[in-house]
From TrEMBL:
UniProt record, GO biological process: lipopolysaccharide biosynthetic process
Pfam families membership: Glyco_trans_1_4
Organism of origin: Desulfosporosinus metallidurans
Cited PANTHER family: GLYCOSYLTRANSFERASE WBBK-RELATED
Name of the featured protein: Putative glycosyl transferase
């Protein structure tokens, strides 16, 4: 069986970041077709990159996971100060490189292993452009590489160190058409083979879910946020908007329920309920019980929680300044979006006051997921990309309506 490697900054059951979860789902799907190894660090916490897992190899759900120690922990205050400085003015390449090393996680052992063993892998897949494992790893093994950038318009991507990075891989796999358009416009790299793959969504039957309201003692209507509770995810603005909304309106009893690891201070208010990290079973029970899901992030490359909400017939309210989230809502008619506080209030009022329309949006979202995000389709796309790269076939991969390539479902654009 052909052996492939996936390089990612963190990996494990305790790691609940969006891109890391996506990586684990893809790895566990690809073991049906390949011998899959994940090259990652011993870190669990993305804030410090502290070594918490044991170094070495283990098998998780048929995937071989090779963990390597990080060279050093990151000091959040120092890194925040460095980030503010470099994003506030035009930086030199050397300054961007120093920032990338501070960003981390830097693992010399992982990079040495990749250098020594890259020739033994059919394909090497790099997950997420932002982190040092991808940046330095892709420079080591570009010849049979696939990059899944999970990119969006955020300050780091405008550092000049990334200009060359997006021209290195053999194939780039995008999560959405919005991501593809942004990357190809910014880096002028449409000549690189690419494919929009998305991800598959698989949710449990509602019949087997626990009674979320009874289990957690929540009787009132509630809006649900699921994910890392972080300023970079728009949580600060969400807390501000929600508390202003309930203080100014007549939404007596309305709650904001949070699921996820907090790395940002949560206001002490009885109308905000933080439940921490929950099992998948309880998470899906919460999604099914919520009036709607809110995603306040301005920077998303896909949003797994939005697709999970749709699959459970639950509509969404999202930050309209994020083209990806806005695009999902427009294509699915499964939710609304806002760009400021006034629009947040108006859209939330509309969803809460119009039960029939809100439920209809949830059903629209489910149909959208069923059409576009089934695992069988996603697996075929990954296999096609891997075989093109691994067999050194010089094909142009693009999800267009242009010239078909053989019977493998791939398509290519005419040469520029």
């Amino acid at each position: 069986m052909k052996r492939i490697a996936i390089v990612v900054q963190r990996y494990g059951l305790e790691v609940n970041g969006g891109s890391e979860l996506y990586c684990r789902q893809i790895a566990e799907r690809l073991v049906k077709f390949y011998e899959v190894e994940v090259l990652t660090t011993c870190a669990i916490d993305y804030v410090t990159w502290r070594n918490e897992y044991s170094q070495g190899a283990e098998v998780m759900n048929r995937v071989t996971v090779r963990r390597f120690k990080t060279d050093r922990e990151r000091v959040p205050s120092d890194f925040d100060r460095s980030s503010r400085k470099i994003f506030s003015s035009k930086s030199m390449f050397s300054e961007g490189l120093a920032w990338q090393q501070e960003q981390g996680p830097v693992s010399t052992d992982l990079l040495h292993y990749l250098e020594e063993h890259k020739g033994s892998y059919y394909v090497v897949i790099f997950m997420t452009y932002l982190y040092a494992t991808t940046y330095f790893g892709l420079h080591i093994a570009p010849e049979r590489s696939i990059l899944i950038p999970t990119a969006h318009d955020e300050p780091p991507i405008h550092l000049n160190i990334f200009n060359s990075l997006f021209h290195l891989p053999r194939v780039i796999l995008f999560l959405t058409e919005e991501e593809k358009k942004f990357v190809q416009t910014k880096f002028k790299n449409s000549y690189i083979s690419s494919l929009t793959v998305g991800l598959g969504v698989e949710c449990p039957s509602k019949k087997i879910l626990p009674n979320f309201r009874k289990k957690y003692g929540i009787a009132d209507r509630f809006v649900l946020y699921v994910g890392r509770i972080d300023e970079s995810k728009g949580c600060g603005q969400l807390f501000d908007f929600f508390l202003r909304y309930v203080n100014e309106g007549n939404r007596k009893g309305l709650k904001l329920v949070l699921i996820g690891k907090p790395v940002f201070k949560i206001p002490k208010d009885p109308r905000i309920i933080s439940l921490g990290f929950l099992s998948d079973e309880d998470k899906f029970a919460a999604i099914e019980s919520a009036d709607l899901i809110v995603n306040p992030s301005q920077y998303e490359s896909l949003s797994m929680i939005l697709l999970e909400a749709f699959s459970m017939d639950t509509p969404v309210l999202v930050n309209g300044n994020c083209e990806v989230l806005k695009g999902h809502c427009l294509r699915s008619n499964g939710g609304l979006f806002y760009e400021n506080y006034v629009e947040f209030c108006e859209t939330l009022d509309y969803l809460l006051d119009h039960d029939r329309i809100r439920l209809g949006m949830g059903q629209n979202g489910r149909q959208y997921v069923e059409r576009n995000y089934q695992w069988a389709v996603i697996e075929d796309k990954f296999r096609s990309a891997i075989e093109v790269v691994g067999s050194s076939e010089n094909k142009r991969l693009c999800r267009t309506d242009r010239e078909e390539v053989g019977n493998d479902g791939l398509e290519r654009e005419a040469a520029l």
